[in-house]
Design brief:
- There is one protein chain.
- With 193 residues, this protein is mainly alpha-helical.
- The chain has one domain: Jann2411-like fold (Orthogonal Bundle), CATH 1.10.3300.
- Helices cover 47% and strands 10% of the residues.
- The protein has six helices and six strands.
- The strands form three sheets. A two-stranded antiparallel ribbon has the order 1-2. A two-stranded antiparallel ribbon has the order 3-4. A two-stranded antiparallel sheet has the order 5-6.
- β1 and β2 form a beta hairpin.
- α1 crosses α5 and α3 runs antiparallel to α4.
- The longest helix has 23 residues.
- The chain is globular and about 60 Å long.
- 30% of the residues are buried.
């Protein structure tokens, strides 16, 4: 099932601010609980990247690039889960990340204000992945990446931006995933007693 979820947020939560909005949209192309994957084929990945100006018209998405893009999506979700839990990446995650992003080349550029920025080098899907990674790096430098979290709800994993004052939000939506989790925990406690 394919459905464009760009900008959609559960329960009306505000989307991530730039530059994280693109990263959020990229990861949220897959919603397991709804059986949605907007990038389930190389063709769909190409359409998604072209619609966001990340891939030139006519550029092909080969099988290896398709696998890398989906792996990056999973790794970014994993990093956002770690933001939710306050956990650091382990050696296994760092190795997986290195193997996926080795084709994503970045170069340092100078913007119109005279400030340095990272920008993709090359072309094709590797360049598109580099553009996504450059946004993550910019958010880390700005201190906003830690607010990008993944919902721990069963089968959810929705990336959301925690705009709360103390960055303490846990769920993509308290009324959806939070309520389901609390209800399940309550039922478990009742059965145990």
């Amino acid at each position: 099932m394919s459905r464009d979820l760009t900008g959609f947020q559960p329960a009306g939560r505000a989307p991530a601010p730039p530059p994280l909005d693109l990263v959020q949209d990229f990861v949220n192309t897959e919603v397991p609980v709804w059986a949605i994957d907007e990038m389930s084929t190389p063709k769909e990945l190409g359409v998604w990247l072209r619609a966001r100006g990340l891939l030139a018209d006519g550029a092909a998405v080969d099988a290896e690039s398709f696998v890398r893009a989906r792996a990056l999506r999973d790794l970014l979700r994993d990093l956002a889960f770690r933001n939710s839990e306050g956990a650091r990446p382990d050696d296994e995650l760092r190795a997986a990340f290195a193997s996926v992003v080795d084709v994503a080349r970045l170069r340092v550029g100078l913007d119109e204000r005279g400030e340095l920025r990272l920008e993709p080098a090359g072309d094709g899907v590797g360049s598109a992945l580099a553009a996504i990674l450059a946004r993550v790096l910019a958010a880390q430098a700005a201190g906003t990446w830690r607010r990008m979290k993944a919902c721990p709800g069963a089968h959810c994993g929705w990336l959301f931006y925690d705009a709360s004052r103390n960055a303490s939000s846990t769920w993509c939506s308290m009324s959806i995933c939070g309520n389901r989790s609390k209800t399940a925990a309550y039922r478990l406690r009742r059965r145990a007693s």
